[in-house]
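Reply to dn_fold:

You asked what the input looked like. This is it:
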Amino acid sequence: MSFPPSPATDKAPELDRRDWIAGLEKGLAVIEAFDAEHARLTASEAGQRCGMTRTAARRYLLTLAHLGYVSHDGKHFWLTPRVLRLGQAYIDSARLPRSVQPYLQRITAGTGEIAYVAVLDGGEVIYIARSGTHRHLHTGYGLGTRVQAQVTAAGMAILALQDPAATEAWLQPRELRAYTSHTIASKDRLRQELARVREQGWALSEQQLELNYRGIAVPLFDRFGSLVGALNISMPMNHESSEDAVGRVLPVLQETARSLRNLL
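and this is what came back:
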């Protein structure tokens, strides 16, 4: 089996220093400094997280506030909903999310489960498309949700089916966190599981992130053989065995991935 390079792990092309805009890099770094554990930051805290002085961080924060991306009370700063425009611009303009949407709806119609497309970004997978009826919209992962790759079926499928050297480069610096008593937190054991996924060509993840939840995923390739993401279903385990769940949804995922390969 050959392993085409994955866009998620390819290095960025070289950029001439004359084309580099440091201010843009720093402004984006300030936005990315906010997360679930750091929802409100002072200028000093933002500067520490971004590797810049308090004065510089404050100038960037105030500029972002002027543009509507940040609010503040004079001491603490926090992101505003306007930041969502950045992510929505990708969802609306990128070809992959738009192309897969009808196919995801067919998966849901055929299995009764929510279907997703995920891509790898650093240590996490991001869900960039999902299916679901109105009844399902309050469940599962929302668009843009980021999850540690190794605890999801989608992440395992991407990590296993990309170039093995890229997978090892991804794994080496990671500290694997245990989310449940079932989470694979050993690098050696994770390597064994990735080898198994690579051999069979699909991934099953059970109770790695949440108890009583399983995911089943297949890699998603384009017409040139490049790995572009993963197609997956996430669902409660209930009383359905692993074998029955795989037998019910895996053929649908595999057939859909084959159809998408001719389209992407």
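The mean pLDDT is 90.
Hope that clears it up.
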